[in-house]
Amino acid sequence: MAYDEKLAERIRAAVGPRPEIAEKKMFGGIAFLLDGKMFIGVADDKLMVRVGPEAHAKALAEAHALPMDFTGRPMKGYVFVAAAGVRTVAAVKKWTERALAFVATVEAKPKKRPVQKKRKPQAKRP
What we know:
Blueprint: H1 5-15, E1 21-26, E2 29-34, E3 37-43, E4 46-50, H2 56-60, E5 65-67, E6 78-81, H3 89-103
Antiparallel strand pairs: 1-2, 2-3, 3-4, 4-6, 5-6
Helix pairs in contact: 1-3
């Protein structure tokens, strides 16, 4: 599945060069992460925005905002913004700042320790 590269460029312009922000291909599109936490991205031609559970209803009330739904169940705390609502860097910046503000309040998940394979006991040699 392809994603709107021009929209991704508008996100890059909105956030500017920041070493704590990384890009990662996911969801068939691209996601932008702040210190490892996804805050915004592109799926098809829509902007994916992490607004948080408390701001979810308010975000959905805005023009061009839609429930973010990949699996048949909307994800609370995330919204899509239709292409018509993110045609300029200024429009993307508004959503980007909102997402960054929320994600800055989210604690990082502890890193998972690698799973060690159990060794099979060696057969005793005669």
